[in-house]
Amino acid sequence: MSGRNSFMIVANRLPVDRTVEPDGTASWRRSPGGLVTAIAPVMQRRHGAWLGWHGAADERLEPFDQDGMSLVPVPLSAREVELYYEGFSNATLWPLYHDVVATPVFERDMWDAYTTVNQRFAEAAAEVAEEGAVVWVQDYQLQLVPAMLRKLRPDLRIGFFLHIPFPPVELFWRLPWRKELVEGLLGADLVGFQLPGGAANFRRLCRRLLGLPYKGNEIFLDDRIVTTQAFPISVDFGELDTMVRQEHIMTRAKEIRAELGDPEHVLLGVDRLDYTKGIGLRLEAFGELLKEGRLQPNEAVFVQIATPSRERVDEYRRLRDDIELQVGRINGEHAMLGLQPIQYFHQSYGREELAALYLASDVMVVTPLRDGMNLVAKEYVACHHDLRGALVLSEFAGAADELRQSYLVNPYDVEDVKRQMMTAMRATPHELARRMRTMRRRVATYDVDRWAGEFLNALETPALPSSTPHNASWRSD
Ligand code: ADP
Ligand code: F6P
Predict the structure, then answer these.
(1) Which atom of ligand 2 is nearest to the CA of 36?
(2) Quick one: which atom of ligand 1 is closest to the CA of 305?
(3) pLDDT per position as a tens digit, 403-455
(4) The domain 237-445: what is its CATH number?
(5) Which CATH number fits domain 5-233+455-467: 3.40.50.170, 1.10.10.10, 3.40.50.2000, 3.40.50.2300?
(6) Residues 6 or more apart from 154 whose CB is under 8 A from it?
(7) Ligand 1 binding pocket mutation candidate from 354, 380, 393 (most atoms within 8 A of CB)
(8) What is the CA angle 236-241-242, rounded to 5?
(9) From the CA of 13, which ligand is nearest?
């Protein structure tokens, strides 16, 4: 064993993604999604290694350094990408954990690939971890890694954080491999969730499925204790706040408004193109406001940025077609010469351009049907030092627990979404400032450093075996 690192992140993806063009030219770009947004600044400030897949199939790469991080690529074959990543991770677990908003696929060969790939990640981590190292495993793609890694390296301190919701027992119960997954997670010393509800779901599941007693946050195994706790993830508030105060970002924000025709209201959506994000329903709400004459086409522009995501999974293909049809229909009905009410972009952007877009917009519309946290909502708040801007936010996003001064909506109720979008657009500057100030205070205090610091502190402080109670809960809840 070549032990080398005292701190390690193990995640499905590395922070950079290698794309290979048909002519063979390869390039690197930032990986999509909230996990990378949160973990990258943490890793840049701590020494350690990040193990993960580099985004291309059938390619073995040597470890390398990038942006102050040591990256260790874990290879996947094309077949594993299909069965482990697109299959079990994103066609089985993703819909199951997001309240079954799409139908999960249960296929044995997908499960087999998930097991094989998790074992590979565990072996790769075991290989490069120093004696007694802290290893922090991330997200639903790697839920078997904690137990596999513990078997290989019982000396390690192992943490796991789930970035997406953990479902209620009744939904999880459908999974043919439910016992194996729970046992996989219990290999960790600390299992972290976005919200207290997710942690409670997990503890109840352990009791119902494995008969394990728990008390407070602690689950009692025969020989050790597993701590379960909520750690709401966040953004690098300081970095975004500094970025948007720069002259060229403020100028760019003004340019964006001018390019959009200087409408009275700029509404904005920024999401991976994912069926959990409720993109279609917010466009429907906007289209109805235009149709009913409550908004004039020259009064408001809706900018929807939809980052390409999981493009080979059937549900994602269908979603793209549906959204693009819907944008075409609404624009067809309401456009005027030189003026399209919905501006739709199926592209990725740099951090600065995204920050300028946040700053340029009056209303940020975040309407997921279910979301672990939603960092876009927090980024929007972090970018509005001007105290302008309103956030319309789904009650089903984890961020709604903290951002209570947003305009909260039930995304299943289109009339509610319309009403809150209108209220946000008509709010006085004083009212907007009052709400934004409180939300900014929250995001500034609970930023990504605090999230990582609290998780790692809890991980490095072992629960004492002597605290095992005689009366641990056996409630049949
Ligand atoms: P998820 O992790 O499900 O994708 P989050 O809202 O938590 O959702 O995180 C999304 C992250 O991806 C945010 O940091 C956001 O800034 C970034 N992002 C989303 N769309 C784009 C885009 N088109 N270009 C660049 N970054 C994007
Ligand atoms: O938790 C959200 C998440 O699934 C991350 O695990 C992931 O890195 C991100 O969204 C983007 O998804 P993908 O890696 O499938 O492109």
Answers:
(1) 8
(2) 23
(3) 999 999 999 999 999 999 999 999 999 999 999 999 999 999 999 999 999 99
(4) 3.40.50.2000
(5) 3.40.50.2000
(6) none
(7) 354
(8) 105
(9) 2
